[in-house]
Amino acid sequence: MSAEKCQLYVALRLIIAFAIVIMRLYIIISLLLSFGFNTVCADEYPTLETDKARIDWWLQRAMEIVNEKRDSALIYTKKAYSESKRTGYEAGEAEGAKLLGTNEMYNSNYEKASEYYKEAIAYYKQQNDLKKLADLYTLEGIKNGMQNKSALALDWFLKALSLSEQVKDDANVADLNFKIGIIYGQVEDYENALAYQQKAIDYGEETSNKKLLMAAYGNMGMLLGQKEDYKQSLVALRKAKALTMEIGNVRNLPNVYLNLGNVFRETGQYDSSRLYLNQALQIYTKAAYPLGIAGSANALADLYLRERKYDSVFAYARQSLALAEQFKDRDLQYQNNYFLIRAYLAKSNYKEASGLIEGLLALRDSVDENRSEAIVERTRLSYELDQKNSSISALEAENKAKTMQRNLLLAGSAGGIIFTMVVFLGFYKIRKKNRQLRAQKENLQELNSVKDKLFSVLSHDLRSPLSGMLGVLPLMESKLLTEEEEKEMLGSLRMSASNTLETLDNLLMWGSSQMKNDGPVTEHVNVREVSLRAVALYNNVATQKGVTVVNSIGEECIARFDSNQLEFIVRNLLANAIKFSYKDQQVELRGRCADGRIVLEVEDHGTGMTEEALKNLFDPQKKERKKGTSGESGVGLGLTLISEFLAKNGGTISATSTPGRGTCFTVIVPGT
């Protein structure tokens, strides 16, 4: 073989060897890539042959990771939903709609959530899948509960409860008892709320259902905290915390921490409160849950206000306020603005405080409206329950009567006489039950009307002094006052603002006790101090009208009365006296001890009343409503409430009046 051929042969062998090596590398790399592809993409494209199997896997995966990786779970759900629509897989589409609706609900997109739920409900009704329908009805109940639509939420939960009982799903029955308890808590019906929570706890204890126990103890702790039973609240919340840690339920942990922080704050244990509230905020922030962040920041603002750490109040109240404005939570907006005003006043920043007061007033009207709506919801809820129970009782009675009728007809003529008597008694009982229901309905409607008017009075009781404060601020900003005049007016404004906010606290506390139907809390009350606070509150209003308030109530006047209710009485009588006084006249507050009782007199020199008006003064149906001497208006319920408070505390009220000359109210209350 020639040298050239030898070289060519060697070259060919090298090329072939190199090609073999390349081919082997290609095979190895292909295998590795294939293995790697399956490993990396298994989550998105599992090795399943059919579209249906792949969609089911995506939905299952989404449910598995939704608590830890919400964004990833949403991607899987959307993919499953769109593929189900494309391939006509109705079961996957329904399940995807359910998951997407739940995601929209927790992002407060309630209308979009309803659209998804409606789609899923239609499919499961067609399939007669009672278990799935119960789940969707439960989600609808949760959605309405999140919107404070308590009666609608209860209706959905009762539908779900009925289906769960049909399929003998005891675990879901217990869970629905838990949720119904939450609805009662929303309308502050704590007796029923705690009773339903206890039902859930009883089932959880019987079946060792730790997840249900965790949730029920957590909600019971929150309800007891709202009832101000802080000792029992801590017992329940600590059980919830222990179960949460045992189960490892990260999602529930910040809820427990938030409630623990609130209870510790209310009991003055500020270090413990700060620890738990900060932990709650950190977890909510990491989970990107805006409602939780807003609630935790609001709770921290409240805590730092009590600790007088005003810079922290500003930071957390503003953080919570920004989120509250996004999802239009009026109650949370109101609370945060209130905290900011308190902090500004404490730092003598009156300009910023005054800038927020007008907004606070507007929010307060909205909050009062929301509370009135909550009362309406509670009334409607109670009435609907009564109707449902009545319907059930009527059906049972009807079935029983029909059975009895059949048996009696077989018994002959003697049985016929007995049957007639039974039917007669049945009709009598039904008519009696209907009368009771009508009476209860009228009572609930009357209660609702009184509560609505009550909140109107609370609004009126603060509007006048705050309006007076706002009237002074433009004068101060005009720079037309001397330094001495400005200093004097600042002192007056600061005192008026402080007294107004203190009154707001008292009114909120008092309104809360009214909502809970608590009786009066009798204690020793210094009437002189009560009258001084009332005079300070309305001093600006009186000055603007040119009315002088003369207070001659002595320190010896000590009453045995509910302090909040007595303050309301004195404030209301003083406000009315100023309202109906002529310019440059006096309003006199007098007090004396007589036979173990305190006699208070509030006299004005104003428009007075006719004999007819005086006769109907304490009758809300016949009472004549008229405007004050400067056009002031009112809701006309103040004197009715005063009469109610005096009756509860063993006091009386009377009035004398002369048209054009003035009116004198005399209040007699128990002394010490």
Can you give a write-up of this model?
- By secondary structure, this protein is of the alpha+beta class.
- The protein folds into five domains: 7-40; 42-128; 147-237, Serine Threonine Protein Phosphatase 5, Tetratricopeptide repeat (Alpha Horseshoe), CATH 1.25.40.10; 380-507; 519-670, Histidine kinase-like ATPase, C-terminal domain (Heat Shock Protein 90, 2-Layer Sandwich).
- 75% of the residues lie in helices and 7% in strands.
- It has a five-stranded mixed sheet, with helices on one face. A two-stranded antiparallel sheet has the order 1-3.
- A hairpin with a 2-residue loop joins strand 4 (586-594) and strand 5.
- Helix 9 runs antiparallel to helix 10 (210-226) and helix 17 (350-410) runs antiparallel to helix 18.
- The longest helix is centred in the middle third of the chain and has 65 residues, at 413-477.
- 35% of the residues are buried.
Strand order of the largest sheet: 2-4-5-7-6
Number of domains: 5
CATH class of the largest domain: Alpha Beta
Give the fraction of residues assigned to helices.
over 70%
Q: Do you know the CATH topology of the largest domain?
A: Heat Shock Protein 90
Alpha plus pi helix count: 23
Q: What characterizes the major β-sheet?
A: 5 strands, mixed
Q: What is the residue-averaged pLDDT?
A: 76
Name the overall outline.
elongated
Strand content: 5-15%
- If classified by CATH, what would the architecture of the largest domain be? 2-Layer Sandwich
- Write the element-wise H/E pattern from the N-terminal end onward: HHHHHHHHHHHHHHHHHHHEHEEHEEHHEE
Count every beta strand, where a strand is a DSSP E run of 2 or more residues. 7
Tell me the structural class.
alpha+beta
Radius of gyration: 35 Å
The N- and C-terminal alpha carbons lie at a distance of 136 Å
User: What's the CATH superfamily of the largest domain, by name?
Assistant: Histidine kinase-like ATPase, C-terminal domain
Low-confidence parts, pLDDT < 50 over ≥5 residues?
25-45, 371-381, 391-396, 402-428
